[in-house]
Amino acid sequence: MNIYVCIKQVPDTETKIKLNADNTGIDTAGIKWIMSPFDEFAVEEALRLKEKNAGSTVTVVSAGPVRVVDTLRTALAMGADNAIHVDAPETADNYRVAKAIAAALKKEPKVDIVFTGKEAIDDGAAQVSQLIAEAVGIPYVTVVLNAEYSADSVKCRREVEGGAIEVVTTPLPALVAAQKGMNEPRYASLPNIMKAKKKEVKVLKESDLGVSDADQKIRYKNLQLPPPKQAGKKIAGDPATQAKELARLLHEEAKVI
Description:
Elements: E1 2-6, E2 9-11, E3 33-35, H1 37-52, E4 57-64, H2 68-78, E5 82-87, H3 94-106, E6 113-117, H4 128-136, E7 140-149, E8 153-159, E9 165-171, E10 174-178, H5 190-196, E11 201-205, H6 239-252
Parallel strand pairs: 1-4, 1-6, 4-5, 5-11, 6-10, 7-10
Antiparallel strand pairs: 2-3, 7-8, 8-9
């Protein structure tokens, strides 16, 4: 099988985000970049499918500036065979990224299945997976907790509103977007990390894929950080005094009672 995984490089969840000078994006200086955690489940699922199908290959694809190659190498160290870097600007929106990745997939000889994470943790838009599938012209199933594969179809259990589970079977090729809990992503071994540094990463420019700045649908003008949290208050005194003061604060300051 020819298995593909689309991944995104995002800021580490512990990174303190700052805005750039004109508030049109984040200040990328000093940020630690990682693979979006949902994409780790996608990579792991692809590797497990490969292990069950002799002769299969796993190719990881990511769009963004040159630094995303580091995240592609993380996937290679986990066990992926090949990597494609779609050279795109930092500011590329979901539509532009999806169109570029879809065009890259269309250039491949044969695509049997595509895995993605259900969303990226930086913007949480959950759009790129569906946009890629629509552009390639294949069915897709999102928020997938479990999948069973056959030679020509995939049966997915997906999470829906209210904690219910929906079962969807779709023919291959198809796109499957992984939810947390689909599997337990493996750690890359030191030998594989060293090997991944030497693996070739294929680079495709937007111009190679028929994508340009004209495909940008969204441009940010004035991002704002959440207001800082107010300092907490410690109420002194005996329990009765504390309870009385707490009631006053909830009534007069918080205005919730």
